[in-house]
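Submission sheet (multi-component)
Chains listed below:
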Amino acid sequence: AAGVIQSPRHLIKEKRETATLKCYPIPRHDTVYWYQQGPGQDPQFLISFYEKMQSDKGSIPDRFSAQQFSDYHSELNMSSLELGDSALYFCASSSYLDRRTDTQYFGPGTRLTVL
Amino acid sequence: SQQGEEDPQALSIQEGENATMNCSYKTSINNLQWYRQNSGRGLVHLILIRSNEREKHSGRLRVTLDTSKKSSSLLITASRAADTASYFCATDSWGKLQFGAGTQVVVTP
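Outcome: structure written.
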C-alpha cells in the first residue's frame, strides 16, 4: 500500500538559509499534518491542513510557513534557519471521511541539519 | 508544551518478558494512540483506543485507558529483540496529536 512520501530525506543547510520540505500524502487523504522532533525529544505539532485550508496551528515559528496544494501535497517552507531548527520533520496524513480509524499515517521524515 | 508524560523513561528487559509503560495526559481527548519509533526513524502507529473504550488488544499489545485518571498503559507481552524502540503515547484532541516524552525500551536476547 502507498505510504506518505517525504522529500528530501536528508537536508543540510547553513544558518540564515531557507529550506523547503515536501510531503505527498497517501492517495485520497485530504488532511496533512506537520510535526517537528528535536534530538531526544517527542514530536511537536506544527500545523495541519484540511482540503487545502489551514485547519490547526501549533508551535510553528513565524519564520516557517506551509501550504497544501490542489493535489493535496504540502510544503513546509523554513526561512532564516537557525541551529535550533535542526530536527526530524514528519508529515502525516489522514482522511477526514475515514472516521473509523482516526489514524494519522506518518512519513519517514526529513532530517534537517543546520550548520 | 507536552500533553502527556510517560513512565518509565527507559526500560530494559530480556526477551520473553513483558514490558509495561504508562502515559498520563492533561486535557480531554477524543482518543489516545501509541506509536513506536526506531532510533531516528519514522513513527509507526501501533494501536488506537477511543475515549469510550477501556481496553484494547492487538497481537502482543494490550492498551488500557482510564479517562477518570487521565492515564493509559501499554503492555507488550513476550517481548522480542525487535521490540527495541522508543514508544510514544499521543492524545488526539480533534485532529492534532500531542505526544508524550516517550519510553525507551531495550530488549536484550
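Remark: The radius of gyration of chain B is 13 Å.
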